[in-house]
What does this fold into?
Amino acid sequence: MKFIDNVRDRFSLRNYDQRQPEREKIEYVLECARLAPSAVNRQPWQLIIAQSAEAREKLFACYTREWFRTAPVIIAVCVNNDEAWTRPSDGKNHADIDGSIIAQQICLAATDAGLGTCWVCNFDYDATCRALDLPDNVHPVVLIPIGYPAKDVATPTKSRKALSQIVEWR
Ligand SMILES: Cc1cc2nc3c(=O)[nH]c(=O)nc-3n(C[C@H](O)[C@H](O)[C@H](O)COP(=O)(O)O)c2cc1C
It folds into this structure.
């Protein structure tokens, strides 16, 4: 697949088929994730794959939209603030940036594998830390449901600003 087609094809899937995505496909996605760049190559990531009914149920309780309950697998992208690089000039910790990069790499790899995903950040933060049993220095960045689209899902058209609105050539 050409890269531009992959980028165009990805969309936020909010209705999943109940069949489990093949293990090899999830492993392909995770290998693509592993190769993501990170600040000073610190790789401060922890990816928790909620696949069992019990593990998913805990996360469904942290983001209570009905559609979320259709997810056959959820990848919780977490970052360790102590492992991440901090910029000396202003003290900015880059854990969230590293987490965002690996998350989008997961979403694009999933598209390439014929699977759908959706970024979910509007979760209950404290409940999610508890559900994932995270130590104090590890934070959830995004929950990514991943799986096949349900049968009736149509690919939406993208609503985006024009390049002229976001680009300034100097
Ligand atoms: C940082 C971030 C947080 C998001 N959080 C949520 C969320 O909590 N729930 C949700 O349904 N979609 C969430 N989304 C999905 C966006 O609504 C979606 O990406 C945007 O509307 C563009 O649509 P598209 O992904 O289909 O191209 C999030 C996306 C990003 C990048």
Observations:
- Residues 3-166 form a domain with the NADH Oxidase fold (CATH 3.40.109.10).
- The chain has one domain: 3-166.
